[in-house]
Amino acid sequence: MRQSAPVLALALLPLLLFGSTACQSAHEGAALAPAAAPAVPVDDGAPGGADEDAAAPAPGAPAGAAVKDARVGDPVRVRGQQVGRHLQAVLTAYVDPAVSVDATFAPAAGKRWVGAGMSFVNVGGATYGALGRMWAYDSAGQRYPAVKTGELTTGKPLVFESLSVGGRAEGWVVFEIPENARIVRLQYQDTNTQANSGEGFWTV
Length: 204
Fold this sequence. Notes:
20% of the residues lie in helices and 29% in strands.
C-alpha cells in the first residue's frame, strides 16, 4: 500500500491538470461567445429585413424600402399623391455628348450637352398634366436642370402638355454641364410625386 500511493498520485496528476486546463478553456470560450454571435438585423420596416432590401428591391417599392436606382432600359413607376396620377418612365438611351442637327446651335463655351432618351406612359386612371422636371447629377453632387434644345442627331426633344390614359410620349431631354463634369445620375421630379419615395432615379 505504501508503494502504490505515490504511483496512484502520479497516475492521477495528468488527469487533474487536463481537467483544470479544460475548465479554464471553457470559461474563456464562454466569455467570447456573445461577441462572436452575429449582429441582429435592424428592422427598417421593409418586408424581409435589410438583406432582402439590399439584394434587389424592385423600382416602385413602397416608401421606407431601400429603392435602388434604375438603369438604362429599366421601367420606373412614378406614383403620385393624387388618385389616378401615375407614370411609367423609362430611360431608353443616354448619350454624352449630345449634338444638335443644327451645326450653329451648340452649348455655351466651356460646356457640353448630355442627352437622355425618355419614354413616358400614363398608366393611371386620369389624364396626366404637364411633364415634371428632370435633373442630371455629377460625381460631386452638383445637379443641372434640363435645357431647351432643338432636334438632336439622336432624335427630337421630349415635349407634352398633357398625356391621356394609356398615352405615350417619347423624346430627348438635354442637360448643359461643364466640360469636366462627369454625370452619374438622372432624376425625374414631379411636384405630385410622393415625397421620399426614392422613385424616379437612374444611374448612368
